Amino acid sequence: MTMGLIFLPSQLEHRSDFYHQLGAMMTAGVPVIKAIETQAASPPSASLKKPISILLDAVQRGASFHEAIAAGRWMTSFDVTLLQAGEVSGRLDATCTLLAKFYSNRARLARQVISELTYPIFLVHFAIFIIPFASFFTTGDVGRYLAQTLGVLAPLYATFAAGVLACQGRNGKRWRALLEAVLHRIPVLGAARRSLALARLANGLEALLNAGVGILEAWNLASAASGSPALEKAVSNWQPKLLTGDTPAEVLNRTPEFPDMFKNLYYTGEISGQTDQTLRRLNTFYEEEGIRKINAFCKFLPRLLFLVVALGIAIHVVGFWKSYFDTINDVMK
Length: 333
Known about the structure:
Order of helices and strands: HHHHHHHHHHHHHHHH
Distance between the termini: 72 Å
Shape: elongated
Number of domains: 2
Number of strands: 0
Structural class: mainly alpha
Strand content: under 5%
Number of helices: 16
Helix content: over 70%
Radius of gyration: 26 Å
């Protein structure tokens, strides 16, 4: 189970509401089981009714909260990692509040992304339907027009659907690693994804260390919760070096998958005894950096699509008039 890449804003909001209500009730002194029962009776959305019922049944049979969440396979490894840390440290209410804020921010970002992409998507459809229209207007060939429009849209829709399936967190590690390598090569977007993965890792690591989890296990769990196969693989190779006496900061400094800023700040935090404060700063910095870069990508993409569409229309118009005048010249000869 990993950090999924594709969620609708409404799904993210429902998860935020789920955690917000749980956190508020537990902060008010309501026992965990009673809080879940309340959620099961009145879930944030109809889609969460069954998962919450399964969660309640598992907790009533003796499972811990994070074990019940993990067994249901409806939350990401990031959620499970933070909930485990919160439960062990006795800060489950604060963890739920943190996750509520996390999903609320993601929902807001998802809405902004969709808003930024609405116009270019419309523009692409407009261009696909309008470019062949001149030929259809003169020939009246419906079959050719449909082939030139739906024949282009169908592969685009199929590619989009395949991309959505490819980005689902349930896919295997090899596939996710390949997908990550491809997405990281996309300017701005790749850097944004790396920043958000580092933010999740720092967040999870800080929570686990405060819960008393051992440093090696905490790094392994936090890297898995980051949603980045590259970071997870890099950290999994640390064990022999840590067992021989190296500190995490020393091993981290020799790990190329992490940026220099992350390495330097973590090293400073480790030698000063302020690792938890440093991890909170790293989480804030990389989360803000990732969101800023995603916003920049969403502003750049519509301009690029507009340029491509405008260029396509211009080429088609020039070709149409050239063909028109060539036909007139042929007739006049």
